[in-house]
Amino acid sequence: MMTAIEKSKLRIGTRGSPLALAQTHQVRDLLIAANPDLGEPGAVTIEVIKTTGDAILDRPLSELGGKGLFTREIDDAMLAGTIDIAVHSMKDVPTYLPDGIVLPCMLEREDVRDAFLGRDHARLADLPEGSVVGTASLRRGAQILAMRPDIKVISFRGNVQTRLDKLARGEADATMLAIAGLNRLGMADKASSVLEIDEMLPAVAQGAVGVTCRAGDETAHRWLAPLNHRATQLCVEIERAFLTRLDGSCRTPIGGLARLKRVEDPSGTVFFRGMIIRTDGKVIHQTTREGLAADGIALGDDAGAELLAKAGPGFFQVGAL
Ligand SMILES: NCc1[nH]cc(CCC(=O)O)c1CC(=O)O
């Protein structure tokens, strides 16, 4: 009796931002819908954990250094046994997970593209010369400068609402955010326009939500299995293989996107596009691949190796943001 009760309890760890909570509520609801043994009231609880990335808001992300700024404290809680699973934006998950933690589940990917949010102008191209764009992302900043070298890119940190407030106060003329985040917050109407993939390549894993658990936790694996979206997992793994080869993070100016030729066929053909860009936007190296999904990891890795060779040493120096 005791063990039966114990086994039907699941503690989910998450950051406390409105976006993190929205994603966690979605995972909780899907878990309960897929697993009748989690249906008892109180069976699933949510534990909010503050990470280093949440705590330090006055410095640009690229200066904080190190990886796992948004995950380390959550991983520690999982290894200590105070939570059982954790919900993450895949974009913020380092390529190497700590020993004992695995990532068996990704939800179906949201829109991968970036949104442009302008105070007085609907599109990047409409901004008057010398306008100021705020972003925390070196990748977005660099791609903006590549298109519009006249624009001044400044550092914009904080959660989605904080950035919208900064924009409203006039700290910048425009900002950019992942559409996925806006959609999950029910704030899609805040976007003035959408940048297409060939104008602005998204970050690796943008728009994907992943769930981690302890490697040996068979109950958690069983509960999570029905939630995994194989096509998303496949594409994100290809992108992460590319990122691993480049030794990059969400804070380096790297873009990468894998897409299946037919989403309903996760064993079919996959297309990949990768890019590294100097922070000032003046040097860009790009590559594309097409291959079988079964060879996806090698494909992503190979694309990374090509760009690494093209860039040469010293390419990824932390820039101005
Ligand atoms: N680095 C912060 C972060 N991590 C995930 C998202 C958005 C949601 C997503 O990409 O899945 C954001 C904010 C943003 O880029 O606008």
Automatic annotation (TrEMBL):
EC number: 2.5.1.61
Job of this protein: Tetrapolymerization of the monopyrrole PBG into the hydroxymethylbilane pre-uroporphyrinogen in several discrete steps.
The protein's name in its UniProt record: Porphobilinogen deaminase
Gene responsible for this protein: hemC
Miscellaneous comment: The porphobilinogen subunits are added to the dipyrromethane group.
Domain Porphobilinogen deaminase N-terminal residue range list: 10-220
GO terms for cellular component: cytoplasm
Record domain Porphobilinogen deaminase C-terminal: where: 234-308
Entries under Gene3D superfamilies matching the protein: Periplasmic binding protein-like II, Porphobilinogen deaminase, C-terminal domain
Pfam family, one: Porphobil_deamC
Essential cofactor(s): dipyrromethane
PANTHER family, per the entry: PORPHOBILINOGEN DEAMINASE (PTHR11557:SF0)
Pathway: Porphyrin-containing compound metabolism; protoporphyrin-IX biosynthesis; coproporphyrinogen-III from 5-aminolevulinate: step 2/4; Porphyrin-containing compound metabolism; chlorophyll biosynthesis
GO biological process: chlorophyll biosynthetic process; protoporphyrinogen IX biosynthetic process
Reaction(s) this enzyme catalyzes, per UniProt: 4 porphobilinogen + H2O = hydroxymethylbilane + 4 NH4(+)
Species in which this protein is naturally found: Rhodospirillum rubrum (strain ATCC 11170 / ATH 1.1.1 / DSM 467 / LMG 4362 / NCIMB 8255 / S1)
S-(dipyrrolylmethanemethyl)cysteine modifications at: 250
Cofactor-binding details, from the entry: Binds 1 dipyrromethane group covalently.
Molecular function GO terms recorded: hydroxymethylbilane synthase activity
UniProt keyword annotation of Transferase present: yes
Domain of life: Bacteria
Keywords, sorted A to Z: Chlorophyll biosynthesis, Porphyrin biosynthesis, Transferase
